[in-house]
């Protein structure tokens, strides 16, 4: 321990930081040792609650993550022992309490509990939506409402999916492990999707006071590196790593000194991490040389176009629009179409982009999605249709749940109504 009592504010800040950096590690360790997903989450939550109670008196531990893991693990063991009536169950608990986290649990030889967790969640017996949602819940600690917003579905629907997914893992006896090499391909797409969404939630949080949750983005990049080490010949794994690096390189320029959002075209590119950009470009080149293009490689190529431009005026929007055409062919989703509309609007003018956005709006495919209204507002602003832009900004504000995005939209609304 630190050896001295800590104030309530200090403890609260430390617990919040520990949740963001260590929740996934704590839960993944408990799932490995107990095999019970609900018990793992409950005991992890209990450990964080105990931290709020004990750290003000005992001081903040030098290693909060280790303290939380030990506390949660002891709580899980206590509950298992209380529930035990037979000698066999007691023997199982004894094995658990003496388990070595470095022991291999799969033919892959990968000793990373969080990567094991992702591969377990991405078992082909589960639907793609359940795979991704369950991983975001257990690994990232995202709330059910946050995950529901990421999938654009009602909260009750997402809650049911999570319950069914856990039940299926338990009833089907799905093993907690990274599968042997010959089984990796059947889960690759889902694992990549999980890492992509994990990074996005860290890079642009769906709700809360902060736009950026650095630990989530860094965790996604770390796991992407691990996955590339595991599957070096999988071009989409390499392409995803390239995409995450090229995107994360812009992180420092995304907020101003007041913590407000700075749009891409206004960012100070000298603040971009050019070492990370070079690493990302090298991975993209390695992926593309294999001649098997995929959605993550295309998105990485789009990010590379931004990285290559010395300022926003040098951006090759025509090339980006062409790449989005290809991405829309590979992944024909409304969100990709919205991003394509932005690129077309930048390449061919705001009127062209607005037509595409209005068509998306009319389709209802992105109903309730704040970025649709925000994009429409931006095109209207560029066309000097300020009264219509103000209406669209108000619509986007009503749908936004992130404070930094809200302040940005409020500033744009103020500009539109001042003219």
Task: Report on this structure.
The protein has helices at about 10-35, 35-60, 65-85, 85-95, 115-120, 130-140, 145-150, 155-170, 185-205, 215-230, 235-250, 275-290, 295-310, 315-330, 335-350, 350-365, 370-380, 385-400, 405-419. It has a domain at about 10-95: Rna Polymerase Sigma Factor, Chain: A. The chain is mainly alpha-helical.
**CATH architectural grouping of one domain:** Orthogonal Bundle
Class based on secondary structure composition and strand pairing: mainly alpha
Count the beta strands: 0
- Measured as a percent range, the helix fraction is 55-70%
Main β sheet profile: none
Radius of gyration: 23 Å
Q: Strand-and-helix sequence, N→C? A: HHHHHHHHHHHHHHHHHHH
Look at the structure and give the mean pLDDT. Answer: 86
> How much strand content do the residues show?
under 5%
Q: How is the topology of this model organized?
A:
Layout: H1 8-34, H2 37-58, H3 64-83, H4 87-97, H5 113-121, H6 128-138, H7 144-151, H8 155-172, H9 185-203, H10 214-230, H11 235-248, H12 274-288, H13 295-308, H14 317-330, H15 334-348, H16 350-363, H17 370-382, H18 386-399, H19 403-418
Helix pairs in contact: 1-2, 1-3, 1-5, 2-3, 3-4, 6-7, 6-8, 6-9, 7-8, 9-10, 9-11, 10-11, 11-12, 11-13, 12-13, 13-14, 14-15, 15-16, 16-17, 17-18, 18-19
